[in-house]
Amino acid sequence: MNADMTRKSMSVLVVEDESLIAMNLEMILEDLGHSVIGPVMTLRNLEKLLDGDFHADAAILDVNIAGEPIFPYARRLADLGVPLIFASGYGASGIRDDLAHYPVVPKPYTELDIARMLDRIFPA
């Protein structure tokens, strides 16, 4: 797989509290030619990041960070105009109604799954 699938290099925020999953996603995104912001592994660190001079082209968010839902922070990112992708082992049924129109990539995912999701939010 290469960066041709996702057409342009992007900065992608990764929020994931499982270190092996976060490292895998970071490698996938870098293999696709993107730069990674993070991985951010706690909601406290995410809040600090968002309170600063923050910019990302997209965000891939685990829906559950250390037992806490990501949704208030996802809403904040959406309000900043950041396209979102949720990563969940529970599928789309666990996404809050006001955010349900964003795509969900089921865990476990592959490089192809991530490339397709990025292509979905950034069509040619």
UniProtKB/TrEMBL annotation:
Positions where 4-aspartylphosphate occurs in the chain: 62
Signal peptide from the UniProt entry: none
Occurrences of domain Response regulatory (ranges): 11-122
Keywords associated with the record: Phosphoprotein
An example Gene Ontology biological process: phosphorelay signal transduction system
Protein name: Response regulator receiver domain-containing protein
Naturally occurring in which organism (per UniProt): Hoeflea halophila
